[in-house]
Structure formats: structure tokens, C-alpha cells
Amino acid sequence: MMGFSSFRTTRETGEAAQACIDKIQTLAVQASEGCSSPLYTMIDIANRLERDPRTAKNIWVVRSNTRPGAAPEHTRISAWPLHFSSQARASEKPLLYLTSSSTSAQLCALSSESSQRGILCNDIETISSIWPKGAHPWVPLWLAANPRCLPFDPASGAEARAIALAALKSLYVDGSNGFYYMALHDEPNDFVGPMDKHSVSQALQGMYKIAELEAGPDRPKVRLLGAGLSLRAVIAAAQILHEDWGVGCELWSCPSYTRLARDADSALRWNRMHPDLPRRSSHLRDSLNVEDAPVVAVTGYAQHVAEQIGAHLNSRFVALGADSIGSLPTRPISSKTVDKRWIATLALRALAQDGKVPQEYVKQAMRRYLLQ
Question: Which PANTHER family does the UniProt entry name for this protein (predicted)?
Fold first, then answer.
């Protein structure tokens, strides 16, 4: 099967990917703090695949980043030599690329180097920068606009592991075109524990519910969405809303706002072209249009990344990003996420606009949380 790649996808490609999948699935869930973050989960997976003789021959691992740490001696620092290897060109192997790329130009060059294939893991978020998530503002635009790229922003090591497994199966067992992208941070999220099959299935579609803080049948309710590291601030904001204001909160992890938006856009186009046939829905609409409660979506990127899903929702919608409150900083960012106090306050404002809480609550919150 030939796709965008300059490598031949063969039966051996699928067998190599399945060997890697089997290896990852047998790994014990890491209980230590270091291996529970998305970054160290993927580093651990790469190390184990390269060090095991049974899988080392079945995967190409490239580490172009300079992060210190033990790595197998045969680690590659570029994918370009593979293009000149007759053995590599004869049968593609799964490609896991670990990088620290801060601009869309770097990512564009890297994706060309890897023939628009593989699992691209970017740890730029862990490096001090004036840009949100360490990425130039064009990076999320490039990721969202590139049809060959399926971008994810995992909140936990469990999410990163699930995405890696899905990518191996989709790209190399099923033979799909394109590449997966993961933005990796190095902070654990203890609130997001092991994932069952249902959670994994929904996460790969873009979002899944992780918890609900109930506040009684007659109390107002909001749905709070977070991606990547921003999910921690969302969880903290939910606790503020629940404890200080008696607001019920649904908590959703959204590993990919872009996938949610693409699937919803696809359903919308299909319905427009087939008006006489039963309407198609999407995972986004099935998840969030079942009831009328405000939706607050938070991202560590600029606000427009979360805004991608707003047009498909019937409820009041608020998107928050690194540029939502004030202007972008001109010095290295000290806080990596949107402030939990702003998330809670703007959720209250959405409820007030729907007439579900008094407008005075918003003024009180601004004073109480020193936001004025």
C-alpha cells in the first residue's frame, strides 16, 4: 500500500507495528511521578522499545531533541538516512520521532524529513519561552490546517500511551496516511488515572468525561473542558465553583479540539450535501448537546484552538486560551496555564448570562479572587 510516504508499507510493516503494540500493552502502569506525565511516558516507551531486542528491529526511533537522559546507543538523530537505505525503503517500520521544535517552519521541515509519517512527539512546552506552550503562534494554526496531521495535546501519561497505541495501529496496521502529533508536557496529572476501553475510545475521538461534581437537582451546572496541562487549572476551577458557589461541574479532558472540530465539520458537510438522508452527528455534538448548560473550553494555546468547536454547540460557549486575559507577555511565561480563578469567574458569567445565577455573583467573584 502506497500513501504519502516514500517508504513501502508491507505485511512486515504491520507485523512490526503489532510487535510494538504488544510490547507497550505489556508494560506495567508506571506509578512513579516521573513516568506519569505525557513526556516521560513517551520517553519510557521509546527507551523500552529500543532496548528490547525483540522490538528494536521493528521501530525507527529518532531523537532530535537535546534533552539529557539515558538513551540507547543506536538512537537516530534524523530520519533522512532512512531515505537512502534500500532496506528501509523496501519495508516501512513504525517511526517515533522525539523533538523540541518551536516553530511551524521547523515542524514543516521535520514532517518532510519523515515523509509525513509517524508519531511526532514535541516537548517544546517544557522549555521556558515567551510563547504559550513554548510554540510560536503559527504552530497550532499549522497543526489544525494540515490535513495529514492529527494533533493531540494529552493531559496524562495514560492518554499519551493510548494515543501512541492508536497511532501504531492506524498508520502501520491499518495503513492510514498521515502522521500523529503529540504536544508533551512533563507534569503529572494525578486526577486523571488509568483509562478503561470506553474512555480510550472517546479520548481518541477528541474528548471524554473524567468526573462530575454534582450540586443538587436545582443547582446550576457548567461543562468544563481542558486539554493538556490546562486540564489541571480546569479541575481546580471546578472545585472553586463547586465549593464557593454551589455550581455543579462536568469535567472533560479534550486531547484534541482539532479532531472534534474536523469530525463535526465533516458531519455538517455531509448533512448539507445529503438533505434527504438521515442526519449524521459527531462525537462533539453527542457529548455536549444532550443538555443545555454553558460550556467553557480551555487550552494552553491561543484561544482560537478551543474556539474551533464553538460553532457546533447549541449551549452558551466560552473559549479560553493563553491570550484570553490581557496581551501576551514579552518575557518567559511563569504560569503555563489559564488562571483557575478566571476560568471559574467566566463560567459564572456564562451562567449569569443564561439567567441561572445572579449577575452579582460575577462582581463578587471578581472582588473575591482579586481579578479587578
Answer: PYRUVATE DEHYDROGENASE E1 COMPONENT
Q: How many residues does the chain have?
A: 372
Q: How far apart are CA 9 and CA 358, in angstroms?
A: 60
**Per-residue cell: 318:** 466560552
R_g of the chain computed on alpha carbons: 21
What is the value of pTM for the model shown?
0.93
Distances (CA, A) of 165 to 22, 37, 169, 250, 330: 9, 16, 6, 27, 39
Handedness of CA 100, 122, 264, 213 (dihedral sign): negative
Cα 9 from Cα 26, distance rounded (Å): 25
Give tens-digit pLDDT for 78-110.
999 999 999 999 999 999 999 999 999 999 999
Residue 155's alpha-carbon distances to 45, 96, 225, 227, in angstroms, are 17, 19, 12, 6
**CA pair distance 160, 158, nearest whole angstrom:** 5
Are 347 and 319 in contact, with CB atoms under 8 Å apart? no
Torsion of CA 168, 169, 172, 177, to 10 degrees: -90
Q: Give the separation between CA 152 and CA 258, rounded to whole angstroms.
A: 8
* CA atoms of 273 and 10, how far apart (whole Å): 36
Closest CA to 9 of 114, 93, 87: 93
* C-alpha–C-alpha distance, residues 300 and 298, integer Å: 7
Grid cell, residue 71, equals 538513551
Angle between helices 38-51 and 11-26 (to 10 degrees): 120
pLDDT in tens, 278-330: 999 999 999 998 888 999 999 999 999 999 999 999 999 999 999 987 644 55
- Here the cell at position 368 is 473575591
